[in-house]
Amino acid sequence: NAGVTQTPKFRVLKTGQSMTLLCAQDMNHEYMYWYRQDPGMGLRLIHYSVGEGTTAKGEVPDGYNVSRLKKQNFLLGLESAAPSQTSVYFCASSAGQGTGELFFGEGSRLTVL
Amino acid sequence: DAKTTQPPSMDCAEGRAANLPCNHSTISGNEYVYWYRQIHSQGPQYIIHGLKNNETNEMASLIITEDRKSSTLILPHATLRDTAVYYCILRYPNAGGTSYGKLTFGQGTILTVHP
Lengths: 113, 115
Description:
The complex is a heterodimer of chains A (113) and B (115). In chain A, the strands form two sheets. In chain A, strands 2, 4, 5, 6, 9, 10 and 11 form a seven-stranded mixed sheet that branches. Chain A is built from no helices and eleven strands. With 113 residues, chain A is mainly beta. The radius of gyration of chain A is 13 Å and the shape is globular. Chain B is built from no helices and nine strands. In chain B, the strands form two sheets. A five-stranded mixed sheet of chain B has the order 1-9-8-3-4, with no helix packed on it. The interface between A and B is medium-sized, with 26 and 25 residues.
């Protein structure tokens, strides 16, 4: 049982390049989330999904897009990367409605030069 | 979500109990107290949560005062692997809309377990 798996774990991009982070969960959870964590800023919610085929904006959605075509996968896309998007990105999932028990992945460290 | 206050750091000897306090004097009647931890370079890990009664699971115990203005997370037999940042978070149940997934992590307490 892998839980929440993120790929890739590390990536270096040049400004303007695009990329996609993949999050996969094997717990049959309905809810999935993408966060970014920056020093002194805590965790900030980028986008979330409450079920297959649905997505919604979180606190800091600008510059990111997401898709949830399959229940187990939640993709985070950067269309045109900027240095301000240098961060550690965490994916998480949860089961019931509004539960605060989230299961996090190991993180993806992204550097934009 | 109401604010929490935690000491910035604590030390604990391996094998001893670690008692991590959290103040939440402005907690609302239906806000739950959640505890997460984050080991260096890893994703946050859920530990335990409670409303008003004390709770225990395989990882820890949560003691909430009767007035709910403070709580203590207890790791009964700390190990070196428990060295991490511990976060006390308040959250409404069934939080919807933009509160989905919103966990306001403060600065937390850096717990260092010594041999």
